[in-house]
Amino acid sequence: MTIAEATTVIDGWEPVIGLEVHVELKTATKMFCGCRNEFGGAPNTHICPVCLGLPGSLPVLNRQAVEFAMRVGYALNLNIPERSVFHRKNYFYPDMPKDFQTSQYDEPITEDGWIDIEGVRIGIERAHLEEDTGKSTHVGTSGRIHGAEYSLIDYNRAGVPLLEIVSRPDIRSAAQARAYVAELRAVLFAIGVSDVKMEEGSMRVDANISVRPVGRERFGTRAEIKNMNSLRSLERAVDYEIRRQITELESGGTIVQETRHWNEDDGRTHSMRSKEGADDYRYFPEPDLVPVAPSLSWREEVAAQMPELPAQRRARLVERWGISADDADVLVAVAGLADYAESAVDAGADPVEVTKWVTGDLLGRANESGLSPAEWKVTPHYLTETLALVADGTLSRNLAKTVLDKVWESGDAPSVVVDREGMAQVSDSDELGGLVDALLAEHPDDVVRYREGDEKSQKKLLGFFMGQLMKQTRGQGNPGVLNQLLRDKLNGA
Amino acid sequence: MTDAITSKTAAELAGDFRDGTLSASEIVDAHLDRIEALNPELNAFLYIDADRARRRAADLDAVRAAGNEAGALAGVPIGLKDLLCTEGIPTTAGSKILKGWRPPYDATVVSRLEAQGAISLGKLNMDEFAMGSSNENSAYGSVKNPWDTSKVPGGSSGGSAAAVAAGMVPLALGSDTGGSIRQPAALCGVVGVKPTYGRVSRYGVIAFASSLDQIGPFGRTVADAAFMLEAIWGYDHFDSTSIEEPPTPVGSVLDDGVQGLRVGVISELANTEGLQPEVAAALQRSAGQLAAAGAIVDEVSVPSIEYGLSAYYLIAPAEASSNLARYDGIRYGLRVEGPDTAATNRLTRAAGFGDEVKRRIMLGTYALSAGYYDAFYGKAQQVRTLIIDDFARAYERFDVLLSPTSPTTAFGLGDKVDDPLAMYLSDVCTIATNLAGAPAMSVPVGKDAHGLPIGMQILAPALGERPMFQAGAALEAAASFNAAEKTGGAL
Q1: Which is the catalytic residue, given B23, B25, B156, B426?
Q2: CB–CB of A331/A317 below 8 Å?
Q3: What is the mean pLDDT of residues B52-58?
Q4: Residue of A98, A278, A289 with shortest CB distance to B240
Q5: What is the residue range of A112's domain?
Q6: Interface ipTM
Q7: Which residue has the higher pLDDT, B171 or A149?
Q8: Does a structural domain hold residue B491?
């Protein structure tokens, strides 16, 4: 099923979904001060008067954050207006040091773009810059601020630059929602603006979901779903919420405009405490900052330095490497995987072989360990070296797998592992021929049965002999050479 | 001897220190003695930094003794309005909500002054969060006017104006959001300067209304005000609204005279409601003196100036409502514990803010609310544009403008506390300047029948500090007002 077909219509109801994606930009320093922008670190160690919002402090806009936003603009076909303005969004919350968030309102840094996902165009209303809040830990039974015994706040995250990417309500199914976020993640990673780790919160997705009878223009009442920490939970949550709303409406109920919390454990969305009346954030232009007006030369510089985007990269890999579209998808979708594969190919390895190993064995191990390709002990260079050992007959495919397993654990060079473990493949015909002769001598009945048997029983016996030989050589006998020797001796002698 | 020292200007003290006539320690001791003697009555200082000041003075004396350069302001005592952050030294902004808070950093202007050898003697009283025109909104008691202690010193920088007038310090910093430097300067008979918006860094200045706030000097002479201004102004990377273009010195134009300078007397302010006749007369006298000195003086109309007060009382409270949100009892300052976070916020703010601050937070919150924004905040911003345009038209014909600084001389303590509107009207002459982002200064030019000082305001276009100081110096020379009258002996 394609993404275009993956629209969900249930009993004549159609879902309408818009996504708000918050991405932490991986600038060197925070949005408005010189504190390091770094995940982790002891609580309240990356702080200063500015990101703590101390009396008298003033913000100074991070140039790199603006540049990253511009990159996103170019990648998502957004306009970058001549001028954009920061606004204050006023509300009280303890992890927000100034009790207002510096954000953008009616003049965002980028607006009106789109992204294509397998032929489906999803509109993007805007991507605007804002600052992150601190991180609260509510201590008590509920884990939420209501009913907490006390709360601890870490302001390391306060003032980290965020880009909020707001889609148009163009998404029609949970699968499309997932595909949109996956593509967005690949794009943002490719252009180097974010780590886009949903699990660590450097990419956070809120979904606005409503349903309406098929054919009706007007949107239904929407609910906003929060707390989805992976692509899988996003898809599950959206799917659940669509069905919940349809069930509610079909049983004569109504949808309440509210924020709902996705619970991974019970697989449902739950109403959060509903607010009395609409929020009034009293937005007004931030008087401590001046409008952002990127010069033409700056724009041109950023545009000229745009790296290849995932869609372009997929197309190129399919064309130049002769790999399948599915394999190209995997290489590009997993952060850093295509870079890894390209390094190996650049070092001389065969692209098809590299793709096979990278998307198979190595990715499997990576998923178990949670390591990103850049962190693998099997470096692209080591993979290339191993594949060269296969190509020159030193290693069989199976031995190569064992070697890579050992490299994965130890980080030693493949040649070192092969030497140390004595794993080199034996291809010498005289040496192997002796083994074959001895084996056949031990099993005269089987030899007779082979010679008199039909094709099927021959194949079976060949397998038996090969198994015995591999066992004797501890897997190091060259299977091709052994196979040839066996056939020659069984047929000829 | 002591009184002789406290009567000297900052320029004289800097000279005396430089040539060895006086040591920094002698200068500091003389001023600390004066503060000790007068502060119980005037209440100008909220925090007297005596020990640190004496140590700094001794250090500077050692630097000089070693033959090293100690800075342009070396040995000159200064006072700092208590909304300037000073590292490790209590900074309250005149509010109970910040009682006991010690900032972990210095405001840019404070570092600049100290780098040039100025010695802070402490922090000066003010209306809470700079909201007020009489200093009666301080959570720490009113400041009294040195010329008549039954009168207010003006506000919000009342402590700064009173301290300079009384000889407690020769120089002080204040902040001006709608007249908070110029109006108290006028009421206390000293010079006060509000520079062009963006000329002086606001980094480390506790905000009232960010788009209007500007730091500026108080001195007893125009030359001293220029001396201090040149020490603090100029680009600061930590303030995004700071002007990058380097300022042109003003100290060098003080003797240039006003020959050919075009001076416009703002007709709307020459006839403003509630203008005290002696102030009106002083305005005519000042205009005549400037003309006599060679200036070309005429009347000019700036019609939208009359809407300034209304626009100001929407814009400033709106920004303040947001700027003051952070005082929530969570991270620093006063905390009144409630059953939950929201209650802690509420109880802390109810107990920590005074009436005037609460009034303005409510005004501003309302002005920014959905459905009211366009009618109030939006409209006020349009008026602001009108005022800028009107001033621009006036400056096509004039180099500087002239008006009274305050419609009246110092009024009695308690006279206007129950009538906020009457209080707001005392800023009617000064507010438009802030909305326009332009500079203005107040120069004392005489006294009323009760011996209370009268201040005259000189306004200039943005970045027009040079002609403004030229006119200010000429007015000072012609007026022969003795600003040092209260700097020695008993009040």
Answers
A1: B156
A2: yes
A3: 98
A4: A289
A5: 13-301
A6: 0.96
A7: B171
A8: no
